Amino acid sequence: MSAGWNTVESDAGVFTYLINNLGVKDVQFEELVSLDATFLRQRGPVYGVIFLFKYPTGEARHETPLDGTFDYEAAENRFFAAQTIQNACGTQALLSVLLNKEDSIDIGSKLQEFKDFTSAFPADLRGEALSNSELIRNVHNSFARASPFADEAQRLATEEEDVYHFIAYTAMNGRLYELDGLQAAPISHGNCEAEEFADKVIPVLQRRIERYPAQEIRFNLMAMVRDLRIRAREIGDQDWLYQEEQKRNAWQWENALRRHNFIGFTGDILKGVVGSKLDEGGKKYSGWLGDAKAKTKKRFDERRKVRGEADENASQHG
After folding, report:
1. Contacts for 234-240 with beta carbons within 8 Å, 24 or more apart?
2. 259-293 per-position pLDDT tens digit
3. Which of 77, 93, 246, 271 is most buried, by CB atoms within 10 Å?
4. Is the four-CA dihedral 247, 248, 250, 254 of positive or negative sign?
5. How many CB atoms lie within 10 A of CB 74?
6. What positions carry a catalytic annotation?
7. In contact, 192 and 175? CB cutoff 8 Å
């Protein structure tokens, strides 16, 4: 059994540096803030998209997909791996695109070796090989922040808890596929050439989102595209190139912060604030504490009211 896998944040900077550290060349991720085929095409070439959504933990598993059809042949002749370990779905989703695009992406020697090694495996053994790959696991876990507390990430979620899941969509073999390691096989959504991907994938994503209540907005979508700095250099757009370089600098800074644990720093600040209030005298400390409790209760009551109104609207329109 492999060592634990930490959760990965759905962020373009995180995913871009994950694939960079896996040895992939000239590829990045872009956040998609709307289901707009024109916007997606403008980021082309688009190799695939990664979709994050709330997973229905209490829902029974279906024998057939709710949309599309299982393609068991594609599970054998293209890279498709069953998800065999918790929290690996983000990295597994991006690998599902990368390892089916080696004809158009330089995936690097390490990933090519992994694909070649697992090419004859069935989906379940590919999933086991992925979860036991020291290289992939170490890169995946490289954004984990050190914590002084026990890690509860490996426990199974209950039906009452929110669980999120990554899946991938890409065009291969002239068809649009949904690649989800929790499904029995790749799900085909019809004919699709690479240049049609943006127009074909958006309706599929829209139908997926429409399965959820209208007030559910907890989705995230990222496109895997060629490094946009290359495009900027090709057309000689120095402003665009500068913006992309600044974005990379911001990603590096944000990723450095993600690896740092601020619990000790926060604790020292709280100790200092409480100590200064105690030095001012007991009455001032009690007053300050009472004000803080009142503000916290007010914010809690406001959030509870908003949730209650949302639930009421959902029941009226359900």
Report:
1. none
2. 766 677 677 777 777 777 777 776 777 887 788 88
3. 93
4. positive
5. 20
6. 89, 165
7. yes
